[in-house]
Amino acid sequence: MQRNGTLGLIATNTVAQGDTREVGLDAMVADGFTITRAIQSRSWPAASANLEYAAVWGALGLVAEEVSRVADDAPVRRISTLLEAQGRTEGNPMRLTDNTGIAFQGCIVLGMGFVVEPEEAEDWIVADARNAEVLFPYLNGEDLNQRPDASPSRWVIDFNNRSEAEAASYALPFMRVSEQVKPERVHNKRKPRRDYWWQFAERAAGMRKAIAHLPEMLVLAQVSNTAQPVFIPTGIVPSHKIVVFASDSRTLFALLSSSVHYFWARKYSGAMKNDLSYSPSDVFLTFPRPASTDRLRLAGCALDNERREIMTRRNLGLTALYHLVHDSNVTGDADVSRIRDLHLEIDEASIEAYGWDAPLHYGFHTYRQVRRWSPDANSRVNLLDMLLEENHARAKSVQKGE
């Protein structure tokens, strides 16, 4: 591309997300490309294609300030490689060592033969009490978001790292896996998955070690429009569509429930259609957490306890409850008003924990095609700038050995 040449590009919306952004738009901008117009994500207009696309226009070289920049039909000063308004702070967030060993992807089972109905699991345990050692409730994202108590609807056979001979001593579970998993796994391209067909494809050993001392753990659905964490017992096996945080801290629960964390996740994670697709490495590993405070912990306790009661009493899952919370037409519902108030307290407690002077202006606002009850756009941009500045400061401090 010649100097001062212009370019228009249409791609799937992943062009502005994660690794694709880093090797594409980030590299182009580093080489001198200036984005002058962008569409971050829209549905393809033809009904024959079910996909979200992005569009980018720009020029190689400096573009005069008086040349207008437009992001999603709105005039802006500058456009970032995320295809949205560029804040005052430039650059990408860096991974922080303080956040390692906390957030994990759940287990990749790879074989529906591992999954059993609760009644069958109970029958197997009645037949041989030892089978309880390899049978566990199995939580996926749908159960987490749809069931009022976020409980698993199915169980799973989990031999963990047992040898084939050890696994075979559990007759009924091993027979099921032999009949329904082995025929598929023996043809897998990856040798460990062929050779250890009775084990999960990915056992999440790091996660298991991190939660071993905990009675409960924090989880959220990896793909979700609610992006809200809940506590579950550590005796449950989470699927690969569950993000696990090895903590039972109500302070961390509050922080993960905050608008501060949601905005960070929305900005730096990918999306599946309009739902957040949470990446622990892109979001949590880079997220600069504030110091723990009593106010933040108590706010987390209040949301956890009161939300559980409301969901149980009204038979609402997370998705159904937050559909009401983010609906501007819901104005006379005391429970919904209480949830909004609890989140407001969490946000204010989070800002206080950071030591920031950042007034938040609430209402029903749209960000990345999702309308929510949240702080407004100016509040969001300011929060994201302060978070990125804090991330850079902490990363530099570690590099200097401070």
From TrEMBL:
Catalysis: reaction(s): a 2'-deoxyadenosine in DNA + S-adenosyl-L-methionine = an N(6)-methyl-2'-deoxyadenosine in DNA + S-adenosyl-L-homocysteine + H(+)
Can the keyword Transferase be found in this entry's annotation?
A: yes
Q: Which residues form the MmeI-like target recognition domain?
A: 113-290
Enzyme Commission number(s) from the entry: 2.1.1.72
For molecular function, the Gene Ontology terms on record are: site-specific DNA-methyltransferase (adenine-specific) activity
Leading EC class: transferase
Q: Enumerate the Gene Ontology biological process terms.
A: methylation
> Which top-rank group of organisms is this from?
Bacteria
Q: Which InterPro entries match?
A: MmeI_TRD, N4_N6_ade-DNA_methylase
**Keyword Transferase belongs to the record:** yes
Q: What is this protein called?
A: site-specific DNA-methyltransferase (adenine-specific)
Query: What organism, scientifically named, is this protein from?
Result: Acidipropionibacterium virtanenii
